[in-house]
């Protein structure tokens, strides 16, 4: 299970780096970050775990940025403010989820203490 996202004033742990995959390797459906070439099951488990944690951390962080962007787009002070329906359409969300993301993003931007999870639901 992924660790909760740290609060704004806590340092973030850096997951294992996601190494760049050349286009020719990425086009091979059997190739995935060179895991298929690791023969030792211990090493395979270690690297696969590192990648899983890195992907979770990246997904959590991306959700935070989505929420911040949604909150900024819905800001009533903007002359070009978007409605929750407009945001939902752009992000391919439901309108209810867009409203939750706007609220979550506002909490992240204000540094609210209760916002420690990357999942706004």
Describe this structure in words.
By secondary structure, the chain is mostly helical. Helices cover 50% and strands 0% of the residues. It has helices at 23-26, 41-73, 84-91, 95-110. Helix 2 packs across helix 4 (95-110) and helix 3 crosses helix 4. The longest helix is centred in the middle third of the chain and has 33 residues, at 41-73. The model has no long low-confidence stretch (mean pLDDT 81).
Based on Cα principal axes, name the global outline: elongated
Described by strand count, sense and barrel closure, the largest sheet is: none
* β-strand number: 0
Give the count of helical stretches.
Answer: 4
Percent of residues in beta strands: under 5%
Q: Keywords for this structure?
A:
elongated; 121 residues; mainly alpha; 4 helices; 50% helix
List the helices and strands and how they pair.
Blueprint: H1 23-26, H2 41-73, H3 84-91, H4 95-110
Helix pairs in contact: 2-4, 3-4
Give a quick summary of the entry.
This protein is mostly helical. Helices cover 50% and strands 0% of the residues.
